[in-house]
């Protein structure tokens, strides 16, 4: 896998990003990913939040067809909690993209255009800028641009680096992807947007299965601050341009690898992160319970602040996991930091308070002693940087 | 109600606190509350954490009798995750208290002595100091001391002020209480310990009902950082010394008022607090759902950091409540900050971004538009002080 290519690594895709003036800073803020075909199969997963932004409502509707020609994405505004007017803005944006692509000679309907937005919740988008930007970006794309990286940059908000990856399968088909944000079904503000492309030949049902399989094991297990955005969206488009039809298992494996890598990139660039933390629960009754227990630990503010302070305070891990609604043997819990057992049979070990956690990567392993299931949640520490960044975002 | 008296306000109780040398700082760290009778009825509520400290295991057992003569409490160590040895330490402490009280002429069994501990999880207590301290504190108490405030001070850990309150009922009976910590069934590190005394005549069942009723509406609705300690304990003792038997409703009301006031004191002194926040959910389908929704908002790191920054970022409130597992009308949510509606029908109002949240008290009101039930959770902001204090606790 390489991180220098993204959505334009697979054959049959063009993309770019421009500054449409949505962001006051003048940074790029509008991205377009275009599928040249010959296939237009697509799948998507969306936030589970009951409060859903207009572009999520729109794109979920569009995806019921299992088909996409293009994805338009903007940063600088989430278009969430904007009422019927906000939904009309999303619809008008899709219509404008379809019209511009049709003008360029690719007959496209608005129903073939997904829309993603990210930024502050609650404000209407400056539609004059968005619509002028749509004309400009389609024009640039028609010029032959294949700018996956420009697209990846244009969707950044609090991200400090663009996130993209490409996996070239030995059988001559490719999966590429870009993402922004700090977690799927986990970050509240840091909406996760992700577009993945492939030139493999695959039916919408195969894409859907591969995407759900991968998302459940990657984005769903990245938990930076425990909440979930109104805008989280992951889309998968296939052009079929490679003329290769991988098996479902091959497709599943490739999607899992690409999503996992984008996850690692988002974790490393999460807001205020000074430590990358992996919480692995073993000995759980079921994999679901392992996920729940690992998530409870990963979300615990006192565990996260201790890790920020490089403090091997394993008692906080026990206090956290003890509140998880899962089966555990309270007298037989084992905790290890970076492989060193700090607590065995729920009692501290000699030297536990001296474990060195000063590095940037911390592995927390917790055995519940009731079964054989395991799962890992990726998270970060809770730092001054996180508080600073999030106490002054909208103002 | 007055805050200058505590557990010794009701007739029939003595208490004090001493420095037994458990804390390295030399601050007071051992407290004793003694019931002189004639009644010895008692009730208790404990942490719901599956990982329970030795003193919790002990005191739960003791409380099955519905009877207590004394409560011994130490700060400087939680005696949690200390294995069978830790339980023996708790047992030995109760035995020592019983023996010392018996020597003084009050025949007492260990089964009549509750034990509470607070401090770092995972270390054994220095039992030579604890046992010497027990002798000393019983001796001091025998001298006639009624030092409710000394007891309240001796159980402090990260608390900056002792917390106590007394309610004198017009019918000549009294309820007094002391507490330490930052929340019941909510703080992970900041264990909540609370002892409430009354000279009312009341059977253990009446005390139990009044205590559970009050705790569910007060300590259970204080949520500073979303976790729950291994040591949380609230005990209620009655001496019957007033010879007055209040009705259950009178007792319930008095307990609720005392617990509510101790709650407010803990909220105001929570770790790193710069804002006292009340999250009220209205329009919920049931009171339980109102509690769940308010708790989800109160625990959201992005809501809490925004409030630290005095930022009226109502979109984060909507994003948070949208993840609550409760019924809500996603198009009809109303949010108000300090009474000013910032979001109506899930859309921002003019002036919403300019609401002044610079004061120390913030009231967040969220209407779910599906029913008539309401509930309030007390919480705090998420500040640099919180991160600072909790990233360097055990080291």
UniProtKB/TrEMBL annotation, chains A, B:
UniProt record, GO biological process: L-arginine biosynthetic process; ornithine biosynthetic process
GO molecular function, one term: L-glutamate N-acetyltransferase activity, acting on acetyl-L-ornithine as donor
A Pfam family assignment: ArgJ
Catalysed reactions, as listed in the record: L-glutamate + acetyl-CoA = N-acetyl-L-glutamate + CoA + H(+); N(2)-acetyl-L-ornithine + L-glutamate = N-acetyl-L-glutamate + L-ornithine
UniProt-annotated catalytic positions: 191
Positions with a binding annotation for substrate: 157, 180, 191, 271, 390, 395
Function of the protein: Catalyzes two activities which are involved in the cyclic version of arginine biosynthesis: the synthesis of N-acetylglutamate from glutamate and acetyl-CoA as the acetyl donor, and of ornithine by transacetylation between N(2)-acetylornithine and glutamate.
HAMAP family: ArgJ
UniProt subunit comment: Heterotetramer of two alpha and two beta chains.
Protein name per its UniProtKB record: Arginine biosynthesis bifunctional protein ArgJ
Source organism of this protein record: Mycolicibacterium duvalii
């Amino acid at each position: 896998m390489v991180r220098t290519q993204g959505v334009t690594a697979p054959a049959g895709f063009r993309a770019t990003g421009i500054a449409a003036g949505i962001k006051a800073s003048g940074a790029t803020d509008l991205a377009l990913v275009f599928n040249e075909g010959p296939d237009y199969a697509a799948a998507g997963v969306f936030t589970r939040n009951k409060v859903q932004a207009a572009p999520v409502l729109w794109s979920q509707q569009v995806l019921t067809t299992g088909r996409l020609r293009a994805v338009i994405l903007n940063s600088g505004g989430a278009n969430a909690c904007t009422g019927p007017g906000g939904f009309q803005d999303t619809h008008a944006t899709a219509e404008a993209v379809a019209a511009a692509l049709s003008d360029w000679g690719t007959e496209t309907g608005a129903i073939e255009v997904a829309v993603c937005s990210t930024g502050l919740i609650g404000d209407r988008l400056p539609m004059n800028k968005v619509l002028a930007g749509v004309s400009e970006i389609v024009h640039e794309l028609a010029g032959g641009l294949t700018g996956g990286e420009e697209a990846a940059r244009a969707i950044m908000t609090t991200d400090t680096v663009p996130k993209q990856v490409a996996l070239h399968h030995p059988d001559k088909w490719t999966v590429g992807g870009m993402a922004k944000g700090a977690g799927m079904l986990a970050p509240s503000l840091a909406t996760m947007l992700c577009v993945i492309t492939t030139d493999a030949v695959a039916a919408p049902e195969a894409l859907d299965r591969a995407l759900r399989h991968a998302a459940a094991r990657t984005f769903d297990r990245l938990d930076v601050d425990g909440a979930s955005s109104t805008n989280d969206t992951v889309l998968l488009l296939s052009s079929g341009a490679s003329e290769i039809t991988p098996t479902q298992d091959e497709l599943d494996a490739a999607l899992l690898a690409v999503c996992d890598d984008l996850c690692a990139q988002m974790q490393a660039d999460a807001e205020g992160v000074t430590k990358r933390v992996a919480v692995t629960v073993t000995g759980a009754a079921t994999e679901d319970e392992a996920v729940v227990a690992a998530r409870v630990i990963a979300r615990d503010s006192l565990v996260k602040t201790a890790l920020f302070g490089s403090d091997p305070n394993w008692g906080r891990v026990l206090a956290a996991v003890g509140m998880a609604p899962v089966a555990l043997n309270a007298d037989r819990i084992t905790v290890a930091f970076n492989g060193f057992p700090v607590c065995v049979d729920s009692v501290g070990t000699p030297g536990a308070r001296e474990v060195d956690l000063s590095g940037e990567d911390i592995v927390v392993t917790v055995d519940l002693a009731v079964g054989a299931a395991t799962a890992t949640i990726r998270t970060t520490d809770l730092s001054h940087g996180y508080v600073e960044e999030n106490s002054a975002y909208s103002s």
